[in-house]
Amino acid sequence: MMQGQYIVFDGMDGSGKGTQIEFLQKKFIGTVVFTREPGGTPFAEEIRKIVRDNPLAGKSTPLNNFLLFWAAREELLHNLIVPTRKSGKHVFSDRGDSSTFAYQIYGEANNGLITPFFEMRKLVFEKAGRQPPHLYIVFDLPAEVAHSRVMAAGGSKRNHFDTRKLDYYERVRCGFRNFSAHIQNVVLVNAEGSPEAVHESVLNVLAERGILPK
């Protein structure tokens, strides 16, 4: 049996990646496993509550957040992604290590974490039976557009990452683009169009890579 592939959907908050994942969930019911970072397993969801949803996390250090995101990723890989891929199913993840690079390094302006990032990447992804994501689809749009979309979404949907100032969003966008310069298999999709137009681009990418039929 051929193993399934591991695909990450990523981008700034406000990029519309969640909408694109919802489209795919309706289109490929039962044939693809969808998950998210941080989270995806009971233990990783507990880490999510600490690092993303707890307002106290906004006062933590970039290094602490960096380590917690990698801890959640290790858990998700071990207990969900690897077993699912071995069963022959593809895994689509809402966020991945691309977000750690963009947010904890570029967003926090902490270049000192670049070397540890690639060391952690080797440690977590190069274990027996594992592989890094086969494809990253990053939804790209101007920082000011993403920021305005998040601000318009309402306070109940925001976390401590969402409420940062525009310059933070600009650094995060730069982080995603620089991630694509370091890592192969990253495709930037223009996310400024209508959800339907963006979805057509996503389906084209997946079809071109032989992951899913259009």
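The above is record 1. Record 2 follows with the same two-line structure.
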Amino acid sequence: MEVRRHNAAFCSPCFLRHCREQVSRTVEAFDMIRPGERVLVAVSGGKDSLALWDILLDAGVDAAGLYLGLGIGDYSDASGGRARAYAEARGAHLVEIDLPADLGFDIPAGAAAARRVPCSACGLSKRHLFNKAAVEGGYDAVATGHNLDDEAAVLLGNVLRWDLAYLGRQAPALPAGAGFVRKVKPLVRLSERETAAYCVLKGIDYIVEECPMSAGNRHLGYKEALNAIEERSPGSKAAFYFGFLERVAPTMVAAAEEEREGLHPCPVCGMPTVSELCAFCKLVERAGGRPAGRPLRSGRSGPADPAAGRPL
């Protein structure tokens, strides 16, 4: 496995060790997961989230999975099947929340009713429900499978718009507080190609297809542009992203902190918001769904991993 930005090539065992070491370095550098903490891994059935869950479980972290059913036809059926199959194979604990069954709406209907593009409605729902499930489940952190390609593309979009609040929040770890659990991204030192290779080598079956509702997403366009630059100049994505974290991100913290001023519990769901009603509850209301105030009725499968609890 050739990794051009490191000017290195790995055999299979060394490549798997490389992936684990990159995650371990990230977790330690950004104080993401502490010994004895419980982590909820947001799993989509794709390569990134399943690779992350696998690496954390192999490291002995007490990591449960959380799958969110979005109601996107066959795609949701297939992605949910991959998440359940992995949990069963590992004997790992999977929490499931299904938008149509639990909240009475799906992403296509919600996006149309709220006049949002599907990816916007999806991202809003994920952020809200990941945090709500972690708070209700007593987890210390939510871990997502955002990789180097994802973070570099998001950074490019935020820089093009000079969105200071978003730039202030674009860190690999966001601390807990004001109703939010800690949010961590342990894969930021690994590319999409590396997480895909990791899954192939570990025999992890993941959904390959892109979400059918992501067509035209600007994020994918930013990825294509950065891929073209990376092809000519290996290491550009890492230099761009980690250069931002080292040199610029500290100056953006104030803009992000300003957004947390005035946070208060949403009167319907209890999650933090600066508005009278949180954006997710507004989405549910417009989509004709059921109020999100009661505790989530989530399905669960699989026992906790017997090796859980050791520090990464």
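The chain is about 50% helix and 10% strand.
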